[in-house]
Amino acid sequence: MISFLSSLNNRNINLLCGLICVASLLIAKFYFEDYLGLEPCYLCITQRAFIAMAGLLFFIWSIHDPKRLGARIYALLALAATSAGAYFSLKQLYLQSLPEEQVPQCGPPVDYLFETFSNFEVIAMLLRGDGNCAKIQWEFLSITMPGWVLLIFIILIAATILNLTKIK
To answer: 53, 67, 109, 168: which one has the fewest Cβ atoms less than 10 Å from its Cβ?
Structure first.
């Protein structure tokens, strides 16, 4: 994978990363939510927000294709978004590893949060997570969903670092 990415120019790496983000969001929505009927928890929604933010940054970076300072700024913003997303994936993996008696209480559905609370309060609740985030709804090869999302964030982080090394 790294050798393939090394052969690409910065613009193509960013475009590929943006496409990975879009594909991740589409799979989450249409396969996991609509087809399998899985409801996203607070931390899942938070991770999706960071994937969307990263994807938007990668697409803008690809279109703009700045040199030196501009490219470094995009890279730092992309690293911030992907690292934050990776943090919330790790947080969900931590909640999933807790014994049942230590899992936090479950909160209300997300729709109710947006109807009842201010946006600032909703964001704080989404970032905190709840007991629903500890529930393992799906796994593949013994890796739960936040584990796979973490892998996506790690790939995006590696691609961004590779991009940083190519900036001239």
So the answer is: 168
Please name which of 148, 29, 19 lies closest in space to residue 93, comparing C-alpha atoms.
148
Residues 6+ apart with CB under 8 A from 1: 155
Kindly list the distances between the CA atom of residue 136 and the CA atoms of 75, 95, 96, 110, 131, in Å, as whole numbers in the listed order. Answer: 33, 10, 7, 18, 11
Name the E strands within 45-160. Answer: 139-140, 143-144
Q: What is the CATH number of domain 2-166?
A: 1.20.1550.10
What digits encode the pLDDT tens for the residues 14-38? 999 999 999 999 999 898 888 888 8
Rounded CA separation 157/161 (Å): 6
Q: What is the pTM of this model?
A: 0.81
